[in-house]
Amino acid sequence: MTNLKKVLTLKEVSPMAHRLAALKTDLLITRAEQLRREIKQGVKKPFKEVIEVHSGDGQAMGMKAVTFIRQVMAACFYPELLHSDRLPSDVKSRAQEMLQQCGGSVGVYSDTSGLEYVQHNVARFIEERDEGVPCDPQNIFLTAGSQKAGQLLLNLLVHNSGCGSDPCGTGVLVPAPCSPWFSLALQEAGGVSLPYFLTDQGVCWELEVQELQRVIQSARGHCTPRVLFINNPGNPTGHVQSRQSIEEVIRFAASEGLYLLVDEVYQDSVFGLGRAFLSYKKVLYEMGPEFSSRVELAAIHSASKGVTGECGFRCGFIEFVNLDPQVKTLSSSYFSINSVPPMSGQLVLATALHPPKAGEPSYYTWTQVTVFLPSPLSPQESQSHLSSLSRNAALVVESLNRIPGIRVLSPQGGFFCFPRIHIPPLIVQEAETQGLSPDLFYCLRFLEEWGVAVGPGSDFGTREGSHHISCAKRVETGGKAKIEQPGNSRKITRPVRTRKSAAAAPRTPVRVSMYADWRPEAAIQSTTRKNDRKHGTKTCPGPGAP
Description:
The protein contains 19 helices and 17 strands. By secondary structure, the protein is an alpha/beta fold. The strands form 5 sheets. It has a 7-stranded mixed sheet, with helices on both faces. Helix 3 crosses helix 4 (89-101), helix 3 packs antiparallel against helix 13 (343-353) and helix 6 (146-157) packs parallel to helix 7.
């Protein structure tokens, strides 16, 4: 038989796949998994386990699943539990209601835009959240997660260069830093990325309209700016926009004829003092008909973040505001072949958006996890989602800002912080000789010598010449940072980093130390612990850390 040539070679792979740039974090994740295998095989490392703090997957970091949601889903998956005394009555009634709405089984398909029952539940949630601003369930499209929602919206909004009404390509204004998934989705759609830099000169990150204006002016003649992407609360910056800031952005979008695409998945995770989440839709509505009748908006939310943290069920939704009726018809057909979410995910979403009410049997267990209790005297504080985030954000800021060469702004919401790190020229040079970006070099050495995986900031987009790392601050158990003085180096110990905060530790605390001084020569030469002990020196927890 004649040898057959490969049909699918790199040359034949779709140009769309070729233009997707690999994330630097992928290399980090691969190495972290290799280290885990080596530890299991008995290879000695300077740490006993690998802790990942680069991910927004709350439950992977030890976040406890909400009992009420899991009980409802257990009864939906196994209806025999409805006859058991082990489940509270409100759980049973909720599960029975859902099973009736989906035809008696969670294994069925739903309609193109999602189960009508869930759409109505989402609309009711939005009306309650926005204090009576009306929401039409027909404007709700359920998707297989928030990232899929963003991908589908970009495919609707973006024209490739040389086709459609945008001969130079569709420009999309993207915050920098910004979650990497959106940049990849934009590459896939063939759009032109127009980064606008968030300001980091104050106490927390901020969005400034002057920067948006700069980007628009510089983009004209190169592409057609059409979409403004907003991340509020910010990821990984943790900033939360004020009403004034949102109004300024809406006015800017209206004046420039931009479509507003808003990712609001961290809306349930706002903890900053004096900060509260305001949806773009609510602010738009309250600005009056001049704006509310003509500014086009698509807002994204999901069951993956906030109190729920159910990333694996893959369900989110889009709410369209002022969508053209013909586009709405087209969207229904387009979504039907791309993103009908699993029924189980839709039911998780509906359950999470409408928790138990006061007086119902499950109300107490729900509030143990979800109520923000700022008083340190409260016995529920350590179990509170927002209390944990608030406490640990303060701990991260205080601890890291004590270390020379590291500066972190106070996050007001979300799961992440985005510290800026000073990387000396010798380290930058060494990274370049290895074909690595300086921040990835830093993260890889941090992983090799401390067993902790933080994310390289360049995946999120940073200003030229600045270096950042991204790390999640999700912690359930508390503890106070303390400062010790070992030898000539200050050390900050954090007894709070557990499986609850990072990724894979038992419930006993894992001690992580941060040393003040970073000796570049030690970083390059990988000074050993033995030499450090011999000379009484210590190095920073980056390249060359002991």
